[in-house]
Amino acid sequence: MSGVSLLKETGPREVFCGLTSIVWLHRRMPDAFFLVVGSRTCAHLIQSAAGVMIFAEPRFGTAILEERDLAGLADAHEELDRVVNDLLARRPEIRTLFLVGSCPSEVIKLDLARVAERLNGALKGRVRVLNYSGSGIETTFTQGEDGALKALIPLMPPTKETQLLLVGTLANAVEDRLTNLFKRIGIQKVFSFPPRQSTDLPAIGPGTKVLLTQPYLTETARALKDRGAEIIQAPFPLGVEGSQLWMEAAARSFKVKDSLVKETLEPLILRANKALIPYKNQLAGKRIFLLPESQIEIPLARFLQRECGMELVEVGTPYLNREMMQAELELLPNNTQIMEGQHVEKQLDRVRQQQPDLVVCGMGLANPLEAEGISTKWSIELVFSPIHGIDQAADLAELFSRPLHRHDLLNQKQLVHV
Amino acid sequence: MELTLWTYEGPPHVGAMRIAASMKGVHYVLHAPQGDTYADLLFTMIERRGERPPVTYTTFQARDLGGDTAELVKRHIKEAVERFEPKALLVGESCTAELIQDQPGSLAQGMGLNLPIVNLELPAYSKKENWGASETLYQLVRGLLKEKIASETKHLPSAWKTEGRRPRVNILGPSLLGFRCRDDVLEIQKLLGENGIDINIVAPLGATPADLIRVPNADINICLYPEIAESTCNWLERNFGIPFSRTVPIGVNATQNFLKEVRELLGMPVPNHEEEHLSRLTWYSKSVDSNYLTGKRVFIFGDGTHAIAAAKIAKEELGFEVVGLGTYSREMARPVRTAAKELGIEALITNNYLEVEAAMTEAAPELVLGTQMERHSAKRLGIPCAVISTPMHVQDVPARYSPQMGWEGANVIFDDWVHPLMMGLEEHLIGMFRHDFEFVDGHQSHLGHQGGLSNHEQKQSIEESQHNNDSDTSSDSLIWTSEGKAELAKVPFFVRGKVRRNTEKYARQAGCRNIDSETLLDAKAHFRK
């Protein structure tokens, strides 16, 4: 491992919980419904995080626990059955129902696995009912996706065939592009997980080689391994370099000829590097401070430092899985300050002390920092935007250069009349 | 258990945050799991606040639950008090912490801290945001003033006369994330100032704990938003004898009644002629251009205060017909029901936006006054809409001064409600003239992709389905003859729905089954008188 400084702190945290990942998961699988079993806080959190007011009927909701549900768990089970039956009667198009555990449901030990089992028995395959936890006491933000994917794995059919499986939600257009590129280098059998339809699950088995698209899928990777799959170690496909190394790792694993890979990727790399130049000019030498939230902070930091020339003041991450991040950590410069966990007040003290040019943070902190004269980028935007792959590198850089560009525009001297 | 796809109100601790964030020198330690910090964005994103709400979350995780969470709470309280040096501390818990029963309020009180501590118990599984805000303000005022109760002499609201000063009042209720509170406060302060009345304090917005201790120095209280301040006003009346005004000054009539009530409470002379007023609403509503507003069917849904006020303005000041009235606020259900009864309709009390949308569709209004959610429903149905109530959206915090209360508030309301209708009329004209050669196809309206022609067609189809429902439910199936249909088609379509409804009503009354052009003219004559 390289010479990064791995630090840790605890204290008050300013991060979303795993329920937040429902916001992109429900869009990826339009035939699935995410039913949070929780409180009014859970319902309010998801609608606030997503700014949801645009749907006639969204594909997620909350079964809000009330006082009498807390009084007797037996009644809570009956109540949940009733809510699920009402919901499925209303929404016959739902094929997969995720029961999502929350902080209150975990604390009262409402066994959603048992509920799912019972409902599966009653529904006889008409709708598949799964469960996972998105609770804040157990998960942060993107970890919710890890739980949802892990819950789907037992339903994946077995296979012994050699195939490539891309794991982690990608924007549809990015997914198509990456699949197409793998086909160009001769990897014909490429599947994605999660799929675009919840019922259209890819098969899994000893011949499957897994390439993770997102760095927060620890449990999913472990469960896929248990089904016989091999996890390809690579950096994550952010930026030109990361995406290249990611594709090359897959190519090596499939014994693709180096020359073919080179031939295929070289023009893409040339074009992407050219597209990066204006952003690089803007970002080079600028100092960036990443607060922990989305778990993609470390790969982002690697891209911003190595390809955009930014200086890393501090790289926060909600939690650090060294095995998962190994390839990324090796690419970071010596003495990079990696901070696992958070004491938000102390961290903000360091931000003020260091006065970075740009801070990556959650929505609760962005405007207060802007009001102090510090430019910010919301981390939630990074999980909603198509940023993966060589072709998207310039778009990714643009997300960081825009706040700086705007800062410059608004701080220009007034135009002098001639 | 209640299936909720979207909720009008947040949990009660968000209400407590609204009070803490509205004030200065107050800090709130919230025992809550990781993730509950999302609530900060309500203030920093929706209201564009340049500072974080003064809240320390304990953000406990599963691994903390095995250990000593009480110690965790105390550590956060200690750090928060040292770092922020508040003048008063609120201590409470969110839904999950309520289940663990660490009693953070009692823990804080046992720490020997030298500042007022208010223990907030806000039942998260039965109450909601506005209740939480109301309870927090009440507990805070009570906590700071309870020792002064005995020392107070009898309160005389007209004491200002003998003390040789202007009367002074407290304005209670305005808070962050309240609808246009920021501007309402300025408007009401101005209004009272012009009428010789001084302000003692405004709370919670901008108040310090020291300000709250000065509450009894006022002659009366003004309860500006009953959702937030009524319980506090009641307590101050019971324990300090301070009376409070109940009229919410939204609309010209209500502002006049408000001034009258305040003067009466203060023992000021009340002019027996009608109050002179400075709002343009009355004249604009009388002006000939407003003729087309007559009898517009309006559907109203929101919090209690704004929904009731909107219904009164719609009926009395703009000459609309209120065809629906409701609220998501259980605490305000009774006054909303009373207001609806006076209008001869039944109130809709629900927290389910789909029920509201269904009621809206059923009522087939020409204007919707609601929350941001009703704006979306109305958009889908192609009906013009103005937003009159929380829950807050970034659009409800405009850069310009735009109160709802007082004279200027009435001006703002006239513009906000009538402009969507003006454009509504424009929509019809676009449809009407679309066959003219000057008409440029693809004309875009404010309704975006739903505007223009498709909007017109959608609206017609709504009217038609409405019509079909009507005839399905009535046993006397009416038949429009082809001649009748042709005559109806000649009626400009923006009144066609109304003409059809009236004609059918007349036909039923007159007992004729076939509707031809004569029936149509008879009906027209009948309804003219």
Describe this structure in words.
The complex is a heterodimer of chains A (418) and B (529). Chain A has 418 residues and is α/β, with parallel strands linked by helices. Chain A has three domains: 18-139, Rossmann fold (3-Layer(aba) Sandwich); 163-260, Rossmann fold; 271-410, Nitrogenase molybdenum iron protein domain (Rossmann fold, 3-Layer(aba) Sandwich), CATH 3.40.50. Helix content of chain A is 47%, strand content 17%. Chain A is built from 17 helices and 14 strands. In chain A, the strands form three sheets. A six-stranded parallel beta sheet of chain A has the order 1-12-11-10-13-14, sandwiched between helices. In chain A, strands 3-2-4-5 form a four-stranded parallel beta sheet. In chain A, helix 12 (297-306) links the parallel strand 10 (287-290) and strand 11. In chain A, helix 12 (297-306) runs parallel beside helix 13. The model of chain A has no long low-confidence stretch (mean pLDDT 94). Chain B has 529 residues and is α/β, with parallel strands linked by helices. Chain B has four domains: 12-127, 3-Layer(aba) Sandwich (Rossmann fold); 159-266, Rossmann fold (3-Layer(aba) Sandwich), CATH 3.40.50.1980; 281-428, Rossmann fold; 474-528, Proto-chlorophyllide reductase 57 kD subunit B (Helicase, Ruva Protein, domain 3). Chain B is 49% helix and 12% strand. Chain B has 22 helices and 16 strands. Chain B has helices spanning 12-22, 40-46, 62-66, 69-84, 95-100, 104-109, 129-145, 159-162, 181-194, 209-213, 226-240, 252-266, 281-286, 304-317, 333-342, 353-363, 372-381, 406-432, 452-473, 482-490, 493-510, 517-528, and strands at 2-4, 26-31, 55-57, 88-93, 117-119, 168-172, 198-203, 220-223, 244-245, 297-302, 321-327, 348-349, 367-370, 385-387, 479-480, 514-515. In chain B, the strands form four sheets. A five-stranded parallel beta sheet of chain B has the order 12-11-10-13-14, with helices on both faces. In chain B, strands 3-2-4-5 form a four-stranded parallel beta sheet, sandwiched between helices. In chain B, helix 16 (353-363) crosses helix 17. Residues 441-475 of chain B have low confidence and may be disordered. The chains are: A alpha/beta (418), B alpha/beta (529). Chains A and B meet through helix 2, strand 3, helix 3, helix 4 and helix 5 of A and strand 1, helix 2, helix 3, helix 4 and helix 5 of B.
